[in-house]
Amino acid sequence: MDESHQMIMLKCAKSNIGPVRAFRIFKELVGSFEEVGCTSKDFKNLSYTMNSYADGVDAQLLLDRFLSKRETDECFKCEYLVDETHKVKSLFWSDAVAIQNYSLFGDAVSFNATYKTNRYDMIFAPFTGKDNHGGCVTFGAGLLTREDVNSYSWILKQFIECMGTAPAMIITDQDPALKIAVENVMPNTRHRFCMWHIMMKLAQKLPNSLQEDAELKSEIHFVVWSELDEPVDFERKWTEVLDQYELTDNTWLADMFSLRSYWIPAYFRDLSMSGLFRTTSLSESNNSFFRRYLNRNSNLAAFYIHFESAMEAQLHNYKQACIVDQTTVPQLKTHTPLEHHASLIYTRNVFMDIQTEIIEAIDRCRIKSMVTDDDEQWYSVDDRSNGVFKVVHIASEETITCSCKKFVRVGLICRHMFVVMPNVGMKLIPSKYIVHRWLKAASAEVISTSNMKSRNKSLMAEAFRCIGIAEGNDELADSLLTELKRWAEINSNGAQCLSPTSGKQKMFELFYGSKIPSVVTVHPPDAVKTKGSGKRLKSTYEVAAEKAKKPKRRCRKCCRLVRHDSRNCGKVVEEESDEE
Length: 580
Description:
The protein is α+β, with helices and mostly antiparallel strands. It has helices at 3-14, 19-30, 33-36, 40-53, 58-72, 96-105, 149-163, 176-185, 195-199, 202-205, 214-225, 231-244, 251-258, 281-291, 300-327, 337-345, 348-364, 406-410, 415-420, 451-470, 474-494, 500-512, 540-549, 569-579; strands spanning 77-82, 88-94, 108-111, 123-130, 136-144, 169-172, 190-193, 365-373, 376-383, 387-394, 399-402, 553-554, 561-562.
């Protein structure tokens, strides 16, 4: 395998493309399998050798890379812990762009670990937020070998020290260890549980006689998910539903009620930006995004290379959204000055939400009554979708507030305020109600590409441009090939000849960005056993769902269409009869 094979393998490996696909890509570049010059097995062997290059030293390679980045970028932060045998136990890192993003969008953070991203099964734990386009943004990330209180406390401490301040709210799953860690490390941060994870358990926690009761589930969902109720309203409605269906003695529902301040929206209505997250779905989306770039067979050094590729893609997506805002004008659906003003200042996705509120204000809301007291005006706004809300305008202070508290929850004006604003002479959105995090002007620093990356980009672009020009023209193709061979001959004669082993060594060093360390002080961990790695007991709901998917067949013993056979007919026929 010559330099061309090694280069395509190197580029594909950095993009998490396996050797077989790399072989196919190279085949398309050269035209046919015969022209490749080697076999698919050769590509596999080279990939195996590349992965073996860092065996036993990948943790040291990663830390050396961290230290090198910290020398060239003073904003790059990294910390690690080792155990008594000098094996890496915990890692945390963040860079200048992530820190800048946190200063803009870090009012609420979602933290959710994911598995199977590296060969040691270390838990990958990114800190995720929502940017001004409504997309995922990563503030920092870590790798952990344990999911206990000490590990979570350590990574939360590193995150706060890196960012300089703790977020106002953090949302996680119901992990008991994580709950204790947040309480210890972030005492002033509101901790919120993911509602989706809790409500997914509802069906299996109900009595058997009520598990298929769609009306009960609908009523509980209506009470739980409402963001318009105050705590006292939620508690009253919750009690009414439980009394109606005789569920006051249900242990799980009682436990969830005791934890209501951790997950019910009614208890977060007065917390700024609490409406950004009600579930960890944004973290799930971000983790799914990372999985496109990460490989569960990667060592730690390769894992970070793939992580950087993912972050570059995330930044690229953000830039694309910014370009759309800069180069396009959203379509207005009303003739109100408020809508036009919103289209000029907000990002496209946020403006769509604002536009919906303005349309709903016109179509579904009306001022029912108004009471004036000195310079205060109290409006009663009838919202046909959700009821009646109180909007208060104080002229001397130029303030306007609504009892739905949407502006507090997400930093955007609600439809009820939009109904009143023209009535009090507001043709533009007041500056005090324009939250900077949602504006087009809110943007993080752009990573400056190095000269090497720019040169490589130009080199590859010119090479493919020349090939494209010569495509289909034999004379131009022969001329280009002659020139390339002449250039290679001149430069290969002047350069130091490398043996095949030295050539591979150079390729591996280019991939990992470092030579094999002469001194290894930190070793990779043993395979980690995560909380989700064991055989989890399935709930009755999951067992029933799996049974329902199996096709029925006729039992030769009972002659019925069932999901058993004659060998175990007597054992399960009664159970299946009960189910039917």
